[in-house]
Amino acid sequence: MADIRNYLNELDDLLQDAKGVPFSGKVSVNKEEIEDIIDAIRDAIPTEIKKAQDIVEQYESYIENAKVKANDIIENAHREANELKSEHRIFKLAQEAADKQAEEAKHYSREMRIGTMNYVDGVLSKTEDTVREALEDVHNGYRLLEKDLMETINRLYENKQEIRGGGDE
């Protein structure tokens, strides 16, 4: 995301440093520089998506570790329950404890999965918003540039007409 913001700052700097067109509120910019920055933004977008995918993979790893931990807890609980089987009452208490641990492990795993998905959803939403904003900024820049160029062409045409009309009098 920082790369895209840097490229947008470069676009802004180009517009700020652009030379003004005399007798207008317009500026002249180097089309190639702007196109290079836009290409760099396009190249940076997959990098941002890769970063988001890395985050998803990292949290999937956390979920997998939580499942392993939960399975270990369940196995330990069952092992303890089997050792205490000799007396019915003790076995019953152990079974309840194992069930409780298993439920807690499932709950823990479910909470981790939900938390991870919410976090990843937030990261992907922020990335999507940033990319969408960058695209809007680029489109706005193009629209402004096109409008400025059309106004300049119109002004040149009017000046040309005025000069032609002024010479006939």
Task: Give the secondary structure arrangement, pairings included.
Blueprint: H1 2-17, E1 19-20, E2 27-28, H2 31-83, H3 88-168
Antiparallel strand pairs: 1-2
Helix pairs in contact: 1-2, 2-3
Describe the protein:
This protein has helices at 2-17, 31-83, 88-168; strands at residues 19-20, 27-28. It is an all-alpha fold and 169 residues long. It has a two-stranded antiparallel ribbon. α2 (31-83) packs antiparallel against α3 (88-168).
Class from secondary-structure proportions = mainly alpha
Oligomer: single chain
Number of helices: 3
Whole-angstrom Rg: 32 Å
Task: Assign an overall shape.
Answer: rod-shaped
- What is the end-to-end distance? 61 Å
What proportion of the residues is helical, as a percent range? over 70%
Total beta strand runs: 2
Strand order of the largest sheet: 1-2
Poorly predicted runs of 5 or more residues: none
Keywords, separated by commas or semicolons:
rod-shaped; 169 residues; mainly alpha; 2% strand; two-stranded antiparallel ribbon
Describe this structure in a few short sentences.
The chain contains three helices and two strands; from the N terminus they run αββαα.
